[in-house]
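batch job 7 of whatever, protein = Pyruvate dehydrogenase E1 component
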Amino acid sequence: MAAEDTTDILSGLTNQLPDRDPEETAEWIESLDELIRSQGTERAQYIMRSLLQRAGSQSVGVPMVTTTDYVNTIPVDQEPEFPGDEETERRYRAWLRWNAAIMVHRAQRPGIGVGGHISTYAGAATLYEVGMNHFFRGKDHPGGGDQIYFQGHASPGMYARAFLEGRLSEEDMDGFRQEKSREGHALSSYPHPRSMPDFWEFPTVSMGIGPMNAIYQAQSNRYLQNRGLKDTSEQHVWAFLGDGEMDEPESRGLLQLAANDKLDNLTFVVNCNLQRLDGPVRGNGKIMQELEAFFRGAGWNVIKVVWGREWDSLLEKDKDGELVDIMNSTPDGDYQTYKAENGGFVRDHFFGKSPATKELVANLTDEEIWQLKRGGHDYRKVYAAYKAAMEFKGKPTVILAHTVKGYGLGTHFEGRNATHQMKKLTLDDLKAFRDHLRIPISDEQLEADPYKPPYFNPGPDAPEIKYLLERRRELGGNVPERRVKHKPLHLPDEKAYEVANRGSGKQMAATTMAFVRLLKDLMRDKEFGKRIVPIIPDEARTFGMDSFFPTAKIYNPKGQNYLSVDRDLVLAYKESPQGQIVHVGINEAGSIAAFTAAGTSYATHGEPLIPVYVFYSMFGFQRTGDYIWAATDQMARGFMISATAGRTTLTGEGLQHADGHSPILASTNPAVKTYDPAYGYEIGHIVRHGLEQMYGPDSKDPNVIYNLMVYNEPIHQPKAPEELDVEGIIKGIYLLAPAKIDGPRAQLLASGVAVPWALEAQKILAEDWGVSADVWSVTSWNELRRDGLAAEEEAFLNPDAEPRVPFVTQQLAGATGPIVASTDYMKAVPDQIRQFVPNEFATLGADDFGFADTRAAARRYFKIDSHSMVVRTLEMLARRGEVDAGAPAEAIKKYDLLNVNAGTSGNAGGDA
């Protein structure tokens, strides 16, 4: 594989072996050359494949060809006829590049200075425009629209095109990166659907998210097709990426999924400008060769677009392969330097490496040498690659396109290490750029205000604009464009939630199992059930979801072509092309990518899906927080189930499995609503309310994710109380168990698995100390805090109005005495509501690293168990003079509070 060692660029086919008969070798090569001359590359390819196959059958050790010469994959004789008017497209492509750069430049004027990126789109304009004019299908196309992941730093180019199309005005263009100060005429920095919900579809600028999400979008398209929900056979996914971005583990980490699923509806276009943000991607190596090897090894079809058409005649004359040898051995750092110099420099330092290659360009001027383009700037080469990618079947395709970052922007920008951070053009830069692009703007116009050079748009009657708009009409309308028009979703009625309200009777069940039982009933609903997409990493049995395997089945486009080892079991592992479960393996980031594709299907495809992602809670927001942010930017809807939650509940697993902080991490995402339910009936009401918010007719904020913390500790699940405070469950707190005795008053607040400890503490306080304590189930500390902060904000901005009382303050208004709050999380979780509670407030929490032990011992160690709640309550009451001053010390001794082996809160029960 070609990486830093540029001499090993051809997969080690010959460079490790001696040539014992050069004359015979020359004859074989001459025969191949004659075959190519007489019958073309297609026939030669077949013969070579046949020879390789025969060599393998005869045990001749031929290594896999992972890299090829540093030339175009598609030979000249196989290039298709370009179908468009290249000169017309070239003219308005120049206008696009001008307007994109000027938009960013104008955003740097005094008093604004909001930044932006000029060079990425300048170098990638051809890659996008070939697609816009000939391949990218809009949403009005008969086969449905394509999904296109635009490279985040190239967003100015998409705005520039929308400006020529009449979708954006000059005022809009001048609102670039000023989303509030120019509200109504503002453009987001990058592709942000939440900021521009009618324009962008896919957020991509957090490097590595685009590739992974694109793969799962392509899989989701096939999932919809195979399950009979929508015909997506003509829809294609395009992902535009940078070669520097491909260093992100996420960018390469799921390539095998696309190959395994044969996602030939997916094309990656990697803009190989050889530069990352600070310098070369591989200064001493060759990133295109490295990526070719990597993608080919992962099972992808690879197309390299290295050189423009001006090189064709030189390569044809290169009879001895010396030019190709120089191309192969020249490192990327040198290629970058060449484009920052001039034609004479290239003549001396590139072609001058051998007499033969120097002679090849002897008749070319320095200017003609300078005009030898890289392949990613050649319309016909790029068109040929895109057409070949669309026609290739059985594998996903990656197109590696060689470009120059900052192409056409002048010597201060082209190929410079600092070009990514350069945002302004000098007056001389502007004039040179205008001349290069042939923009009809005068020196006087540029000199009038160098901070505000004019945009250029000849108007809708110009023949170029008519052509541009006609191309888009034929391809199905605007790109990018986001639409939210989906089929109505029939939501389940009350009957589907009966199992949640019924309780578990004599059987014990953890809240994970309570949720799974509810999910199973929801999936049985004839209209709604098929819309649920269960997403599970490799832990279905841990979560008690193996019962789904035989009926819902696991999605696999190839089906199950092996004899299952557990085929005779009731809960046998079953795969099917029509399977409903997306089983991603040990792959949380891929799970969120699958969640995003399903959770945005209502907009992408007009087909609502309800993703339900069940995962080890520690590996959710901590491991994949960036992907969850992207999901909410894309306005995904669905349920994330943080299973095996809590710092002490998952016994035996130890530090990296002990989650005491997920609710805090989740609280940082404004579109995530986190609940910590104690009982199945609470889960039922939360899920029902979540579905109503996402798809109910009266919802004002449907673009949310409901995150439920559920546990693997079995308890007796009670029936739903007769007079249940459903509003309290949804808003975050309700009175679960009022005190049954008179005495000094206290309030015990708990959530999730801690609620039984609070009930136990209530009993101990009453029986041992005569204390009257109410128990409150806090279903969402996070939502209570958000409500409280919103009330404060309203009061701040409306000083003359009667302030709204936060919900938690309302609920606790009549509750007297000190409050003790305990959870299976760090103190910061319940502390979220401290400022909204007038009572004296104490928090117990698991604020250290987790560890492996029994539940009771771990809870006693952290002092969050029932007896710790009792002692903390007595301490607060003693300070108030409401119990004997010696009660706390007596209680510590009585319950042996400092002995971890004396804890009793919790049991040793099961996985789910």
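notes: The radius of gyration is 32 Å.
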